[in-house]
Structure formats: C-alpha cells, structure tokens
Amino acid sequence: MAGLCIKCCRSVKHLPTRLICVLIILLQAAGLDYYLVTYKNLNWAGWAAADIVILLLLLITFYFGYRFHRQQKASGGEDEEDIELHTRAGVVTWFVYAAVLCFKVSYAFKDFSHKLDENDFFGPNTLKTTIALAGIVFLILLTTLHDAKPGSSRRKYIDELTGTVIFDILDCVDSMEILFDEEARRSILPSLDDTIIGIACINFLLPTIPLITLSRTNFGHKKLSQKMVILHKVLLAFIVNLPLLITRMVVWHGMSHGISIFSLKNIIVIGIVSYDLYETHESEGDEPAQGSTANNVPSYGMEDRYNYS
C-alpha cells in the first residue's frame, strides 16, 4: 500500500505546483481587474485578455517542462534543445506577467489607491496582498523550471541567484504604503509618487535577469561567467535596494512619515554586496610574487562563488 502511494505521488509530483501557480495567477488577476473595473470603468475588464495570454504562456511552459521531465526519465539523459525551450519559455512567461502587473499596479496607485477605505474588504490591505502574490508566483514558477535536488550544488546555485527575489517584491510593495494616504500624497515632493511606482515596477521586472542567467547556464549545469555574476550583484544592491532605501529616507526625513523595517534590509544587502565586491577585487588584484610557492595555489575569482560543478 505504501509503495502504491509513493508511486502515485511520483506520477503527479509536478502537478500540484503547476495547479497552485495557475490558481494564484487567476486569483491575482481577478482581484486587480476588480479594482480597475470598480474604480475606473467597465472598459478596464479588457485586461482579462492580457491575463488569458499569460495563462496560455504558463501552460506552454508547463507543457515543455512536462515533455522535458518525461524524456529525461525515459532516456536517462537531458536534451539541450528541450532544456532551452523549457527555460526560455519560463523567462518569457515571467517577463510578460511582470509587464502586465506593472501596468495594472501603475494605474491603481496613480489614480485611486488613495481612495481606498481601510474598512472595506477590497481596501488597501487586500490590494497590497494581491500584488504581493507575485512573489509566490515567481517562487512556484521557478520550482517548475528545474529538477535540482534539495541540498545539491545546483540547488545552492539557484538559491544564490533567486533567494532574495520574493523579499524584494515584498519590499517594493511595502514601499508604496504612503500612496494609500491621501493627505500624505498632497504633501510629498513633486513626482515622488511616480518615482515610487517606477521603482516598484522595475523590481517586478528585474527577476527576469536571474531567470535569463539560469537559462543560459541550464540551471547550474554550466559555469556562470564573471560578468553575469557582477551584473547580478550590482542589480541586487544598487538597482533594487539603493533606490528603495533613498525613497524611504526622503519620506522619513522629508515628510516625517513612518519608517519601514525593510530599510534595514536595504542597508544590510547593500553593505554585504559592496563588501563582497571589494573582497573579490582585492583577491583578484593580489598577484603572487614570481617564483613564490603561492603560484601553485589556485586563484579564487568571483565566478568561482557560483561554480558548483
């Protein structure tokens, strides 16, 4: 009986994650469309067409993933073409999903977020939670794109590149908190609301970069180039966390608005990444003297941090 249960679980092990991913995207799309239709007009229901396109792309990604895992199980090997189709479809799916999400979020926070009532179910908290579901979508979509085992070197490599994405998404949702306050919006600096919305939208799109990186390395099967490692670290520290920290400092000191605990997260990430880049630069610049025994010691470059082969 136990063997039968294990066999059944193995046969459908990829189904629950895919089903949950579809349900979450449907829930998020329905919630955001409801806000747009309620506070704009019925014409905004046309965004459902974009939601259908996202679902179709998601199903295509799942199909390529199913075909890849089935052929891998049958042949015992991995087909390069199937891996590329599978991972590239995932990258395109996330990019389109994030782009549509950016448009919806931009309209919502630009036009009516300050009109939402805290006492209504479909108020600010529900809107923030609905947007934050993007982090769960990324996490589940990522798990469907690879078969790396927990604790394996490939899994560590994947976690290294994508481990902060869900927290960055929650961070940018939290940064838009001030846009729910109508009185605060009247007193903020000119164009600061557009800046906050723009930074949040960039953060929704940026996870495309680590997905592209993972796609190019076949999720840990190939060595990651040094340029891509530096790009990832720079984006993480100075494109994601630094703008969020600056806007929080402006809102805090310039407007006496409450500070978020995520500002500490921004400072920690910027500090760790900056020190890591400095250490790497120093280690690469320290060339051993000629004839020294240190010449026999292999160097440790930044790309080796992500070389799990």
From TrEMBL:
<dbReference type="InterPro" id="IPR026624">
    <property type="entry name" value="CECR6"/>
</dbReference>
<keyword id="KW-0472">Membrane</keyword>
<feature type="transmembrane region" description="Helical">
    <location>
        <begin position="195"/>
        <end position="214"/>
    </location>
</feature>
<feature type="transmembrane region" description="Helical">
    <location>
        <begin position="44"/>
        <end position="66"/>
    </location>
</feature>
<feature type="transmembrane region" description="Helical">
    <location>
        <begin position="129"/>
        <end position="148"/>
    </location>
</feature>
<keyword id="KW-1133">Transmembrane helix</keyword>
<comment type="similarity">
    <text>Belongs to the TMEM121 family.</text>
</comment>
<feature type="transmembrane region" description="Helical">
    <location>
        <begin position="234"/>
        <end position="255"/>
    </location>
</feature>
<dbReference type="Pfam" id="PF14997">
    <property type="entry name" value="CECR6_TMEM121"/>
</dbReference>
<feature type="region of interest" description="Disordered">
    <location>
        <begin position="283"/>
        <end position="309"/>
    </location>
</feature>
<dbReference type="InterPro" id="IPR032776">
    <property type="entry name" value="CECR6/TMEM121"/>
</dbReference>
<protein>
    <recommendedName>
        <fullName>Cat eye syndrome critical region protein 6-like</fullName>
    </recommendedName>
</protein>
<feature type="transmembrane region" description="Helical">
    <location>
        <begin position="87"/>
        <end position="109"/>
    </location>
</feature>
<keyword id="KW-0812">Transmembrane</keyword>
<feature type="transmembrane region" description="Helical">
    <location>
        <begin position="20"/>
        <end position="38"/>
    </location>
</feature>
